[in-house]
Amino acid sequence: MRLRTRILPAALAAATLLAACQPTPPAGATGAAGDATTRSYGRIAFKPCVLTSEQGLPPVEAQCASFPVAENPAQPDGRRIALNIAWLPADNKGGGTPDPVFFLAGGPGQAATDYASPIDMALNEVRRQRDIVLIDQRGTGQSNPLDCRDAKGAPLPLDETAVPDDAALSAYVSQCLKSLEGRADPRFYSTGEAIADLDAVRAALGVDKINVMGGSYGTRVAQQYAMHYPQHTRSVVLDGVAPNRVVVGGEFAQRLDEALRKQDAQCAKLPACKARFAGASGGDLIARLHALKNRLAATPVQVSYHDPDNNELKQDTLTADTLIGLVHGVSYVPQLSSLLPLVVSEAEQGRYESLMAIAKVWSGQIGDQLNRGMQWSVICSEDAPRYRPDPADANTVLGPDMARMFFAACQQWPRGKVATGFTTPFKSDLPVLLISGELDPVTPPAYGDEVVKNLQHGRHLVLRGQGHGGMGVGCMPKLLGRFFETTDAKALDAKCLDSLSYVPPFTSFNGWEP
After folding, report:
1. Which among 59, 64, 68, 66 has a CA at the least distance from the CA of 37?
2. Cβ(281)–Cβ(289) under 8 Å?
3. Of 393, 398, 420, 399, whose CA–CA distance to 244 is shortest?
4. Among 40, 327, 387, 430, which one has the highest count of C-beta atoms within 10 angstroms of its own C-beta?
């Protein structure tokens, strides 16, 4: 889950910082049905493709296909939509094992194929023996995306410099829904339909059992699949665990404060960090953020800064929303959150340039990685009806308005049906490996501890000093390879994770203290 707080879509959740990847055919590959380039997996015909990254991540050679399913499962003869699928074949020249890994992306709203490169790197040990299957969840990527368009069919813009008022939001949602007419019915783009799609693809591939691996919101999909189709599930990996009972967006404010307090505690243990930031607030990062947020809310500041993309001198307004969006965003990644104490200190002294520049870098990296319409289909059906405001949010850095804005579109967005028992805890005797980052601001280790209690063959690994998403950290790729080979989480030798450490806060722009 990822949240951007500068704007309403900042109530959109997401799972990684990594660049979006779009599938494009390699030179010379026609891929037409019946050509030599076509390769079958069960009943699905694939053709070569290359999944590339806009920000320089290594391209991934894959096999791509589309697979038709009914938009409304209750009307199999009604509108059909095509699921976009990428198959990363096992390195074993003799063919992979008969139980592939299905990776489920986060958000909700992220497309699995957009993250082929980091997935391929994290699962490089797994690919020695097993195929990896990436399916863009319906409504994302190239699986009939619920993208909002204007009257001319162009992407519908939303001002990313200000929180829209109720009228502006209502107009945006109305136009988005109008643009979907004839293309999609938003009621059928939530988790229940997604797991049915996964099982339809499994059957079409001719596979009896699959290994399901979910990241962030994808852990909800993975748990729901394993609960509804245990007979077709070999093992489960949950990275950034979201218990079924969690209301996505409802607990962000307090979880962020918890992560900031943990980060502050690490600073207090380092003499250089403690000495550098022990000011009027005693070094309390949360108190300092509150003070800075209040100052910017009362008086936004015009800031001249160098654009991080081209070094051009620009000017923009630094607001409280900008600050809070930056804080929440960088808290997902310790290497970025280590800059927070320093840029806050600079801003306290009237030097806002570094804060604004980092905010621009952050917003540029996020881009449009989440499908807004699909996310609303999920949260408006599954989470909004269960949300209850928590008075304790008023004293947090994010504050009480974030959750309200997160669900604001649900007043108009159509709601689908949610299966009975949707929020029931995941109880299973399947092999399950759970991964949490110690400093994760949205899916903290407490969530993993909660889920693993009901798993007879489950094991929870907490990665020291890490943030949101740990599948590619340290020796985790090796451990994932071993787990999918043995399906014995408790027998894993995870001592290699002991080498993980905290990222020390910057005490100057020269870097970390030696």
Report:
1. 64
2. no
3. 420
4. 327
Other CB atoms within a 10 A radius of the CB of residue 68 amount to 11
Distance between CA atoms of residues 158 and 363, nearest Å = 14
Report the range out of 14-23, 276-285, 306-315, 369-378 with the highest average pLDDT.
369-378
Q: Dihedral (C-alpha) 74, 76, 80, 84: value to the nearest 10 degrees?
A: 80
- CA distances 211 to 92, 132, 450, Å, are 18, 9, 22
Confidence of residue 379 (pLDDT cuts 50, 70, 90): very high
From residue 187, how far is each of 71, 82, 110, 111, 424 by CA, in Å?
Answer: 10, 17, 18, 19, 22
For residue 212, the 8-state DSSP code is E
Q: What is the pLDDT of residues 336-354, one digit of tens each?
A: 899 999 999 999 999 999 9
Look at strands 60-70 and 101-104 and give their pairing.
unpaired
> Cα dihedral sign for 250, 251, 252, 253?
positive
Dihedrals φ, ψ of 458, to 5°? -105, 155
C-alpha torsion sign, points 441, 503, 262, 213:
positive
Please report which residue ranges of 58-115 form alpha helices under DSSP H. none
Distances in whole angstroms, Cα of residue 26 to Cα of each of 34, 121, 360: 18, 20, 33
Dist CA 118 CA 114 (whole Å): 9
- Cβ atoms of 356 and 217 within 8 Å: the answer is no
pLDDT digits (tens, 9 = 90+) for 471-486: 999 999 999 999 999 9
| Residues 403/249, Cβ–Cβ less than 8 Å | yes
Which whole number is the average pLDDT over 56-73? 94
What pLDDT score does 360 carry?
78
pLDDT digits (tens, 9 = 90+) for 197-235: 999 999 999 999 999 999 999 999 999 999 999 999 999
Look at residue 86 and give its three-state secondary structure: strand
Tokens of residue 371, six digits: 């499908």
In sequence order, what are the beta bridge partners of 485?
none
Whether the predicted pLDDT of 23 surpasses 90: no
Distance CA 338, CA 356 (A): 16
Query: Average pLDDT in the 5-28 region?
Result: 31
Enumerate residues 6+ apart whose C-beta is below 8 A from 63. Answer: 39, 41, 46, 47, 48, 49, 86, 87, 88, 89
User: CA–CA separation, 304 vs 302, rounded Å?
Assistant: 7
In 3D space, the residue among 50, 10, 373 whose CA is nearest the CA of residue 184 turns out to be 373
